[in-house]
């Protein structure tokens, strides 16, 4: 899994990757997104985690958290 930046500096992720991480289908994820039921949060790393980001995604029935390096490469992950 990888996060990429769009031209405006926003993070993008492939919905297939995200759906698999959450344990839901892509169609379910897209439907929940269109209804505004998916929340996301990106927290920049500090101190020992400088240059990394923690990304948290919450859906109605699942949540996932991943740590990414400055190039958008997934370093670690867990379902929460």
Oligomeric state as shown: single chain
Straight-line distance between termini: 17 Å
Domains, number: 1
| Order of SSEs | EEHHEEEE
Largest sheet: 4 strands, antiparallel
* Structural classification: alpha+beta
Provide mean pLDDT, rounded: 88
Please mark out the parts with pLDDT under 50 across 5 or more consecutive residues, or reply none.
none
State the helical fraction: 10-25%
Note the overall shape. globular
Protein model, in words:
Pfam families: DUF6522. The protein has 80 residues and is α+β, with helices and mostly antiparallel strands. The protein has one domain (4-74). Helices cover 21% and strands 35% of the residues. The strands form two sheets. The chain has a four-stranded antiparallel β-sheet, with no helix packed on it. A hairpin with a 5-residue loop joins strand 5 (63-68) and strand 6 (74-79). The two termini are 17 Å apart. The model has no long low-confidence stretch (mean pLDDT 88).
Topology (elements, then pairings):
Elements: E1 4-5, E2 11-12, H1 15-22, H2 26-34, E3 39-44, E4 53-58, E5 63-68, E6 74-79
Antiparallel strand pairs: 1-2, 3-4, 4-5, 5-6
Gist of the model:
Pfam families: DUF6522. The chain is α+β, with helices and mostly antiparallel strands.
Features:
two-stranded antiparallel sheet; globular; 80 residues; 21% helix; 2 helices; alpha+beta; four-stranded antiparallel beta sheet; single chain; 6 strands
